[in-house]
Design goal:
elongated; 6% strand; mainly alpha; two-stranded antiparallel ribbon; single chain; 337 residues
């Protein structure tokens, strides 16, 4: 059984009745679901994933003390801990995993701080419009014109953490505050996505189209394979960006790539690049694959297929509407490794 399915079944059977019976007044002020770290949150878990941190459980998010008092939070936590310790033959762990608490009663600020930073988490909580409203019906200290993340944060935050902040499944959110925040973090604004696409296309061109062959000419086989690894990273990133999806970190990257239609058919090409050698015949095949992948990226970025990928990257950068973003270094959003 998948972790998301196990979590929701456990919530429907025990969590929801507990909340509706003991805390009906809190239902409009809390949210519940399965979010955060772990392959089960992305739906990538399998039997091998059940050797650690696999258990029946869910998250209860508290927006802040203005919405749920400390005493109410304490009572919620006590009620959650009293839920059955075993469900469908699987026991809940009594230990907190090394990566931090994944289930139970969690402050929304704490959850977000671990993923998007303290200042952004504070802005996210301030973004909630349903609590502590003044006479005009607006949340104090909340600026509706500003987003949760700044340009610098959008460009620098690891996408795995953005995926954790916006992924998973909601079981309860009567007021919609959690859905509002998740929608804000769902994917990059258009200009940010374009900046990242331009930078990763340029990096893919540099590493695959140029440096791979140069390394072979220097008889630097290890450097050639390193160039292919960096090319793969950048090219995969381009395909995720073109699909409007965050790219997970390396462990789940190729699993997620299988869901990217129409690009999933390129998976054998990436496997060839990373697993085969560099004798002359294999190297020629790799160069053909690199050219094919770059051509697909340039085409789907809205440029003529015959355009040189490096030149295409700068054209994409020039199309960015926000001058502050456009004038940043073209590689500012490219993260190696």
């Amino acid at each position: 059984m998948k972790g998301l399915e196990l979590s929701e079944k456990y919530y429907r059977e025990y969590g929801e009745p507990m909340l509706r019976e003991k805390f009906p007044e809190l239902l409009p002020r809390i949210a519940a679901g399965l979010f955060g770290a772990g392959s089960e949150v992305l739906g990538f878990d399998d039997e091998a994933s059940q050797d650690h941190d696999f258990e029946p459980g869910f998250c209860i998010f508290l927006p802040g003390e203005d919405a749920v008092s400390r005493r109410e939070a304490f009572l919620l936590e006590r009620a959650y801990n009293a839920l059955p310790k075993e469900f469908m033959g699987i026991r809940r762990s009594l230990f907190t995993p090394a990566g931090g608490r994944r289930h139970g009663v969690i402050r929304l600020f704490d959850f977000l701080e671990a993923r998007i930073g303290k200042e952004a988490a504070d802005r996210a909580v301030q973004h909630i419009r349903i609590f502590s409203k003044d006479d005009d019906g607006k949340a104090p200290d909340a600026d509706s014109s500003s987003g949760i993340l700044s340009i610098a944060e959008w460009l620098s935050l690891p996408e795995q953490y953005l995926l954790e902040a916006s992924g998973g499944r909601i079981f309860l959110d009567e007021s919609g505050f959690l859905a509002e925040i998740r929608e804000e973090l769902r994917f990059f604004p258009e200009d940010i996505a374009q900046k990242k696409l331009a930078g990763n296309l340029l990096y893919a061109a540099q590493t695959g189209q140029y440096n791979y062959e140069r390394c072979l000419l220097h008889k630097e086989n290890l450097a050639a394979q390193t160039a292919l690894a960096y090319f793969t990273e950048a090219a995969l990133h381009c395909f995720f960006l073109l699909s409007g999806r965050y790219m997970p970190y390396y462990k789940w990257r190729f699993r997620a790539f299988t869901e990217l239609a129409p690009y999933s058919g390129f998976l054998p090409d990436f496997e060839f690049l990373l697993t085969r050698g560099n004798d002359p015949k294999e190297a020629d095949t790799k160069k053909e694959i690199i050219a094919k992948l770059l051509k697909a990226i340039v085409r789907d970025a809205g440029l003529p297929e015959e355009k040189d990928p490096g030149d295409a990257a700068y054209l994409l950068n020039d199309r960015i509407r926000d001058s502050d973003i456009r004038n940043l270094h073209i590689l500012c959003a490219v993260h190696e490794g």
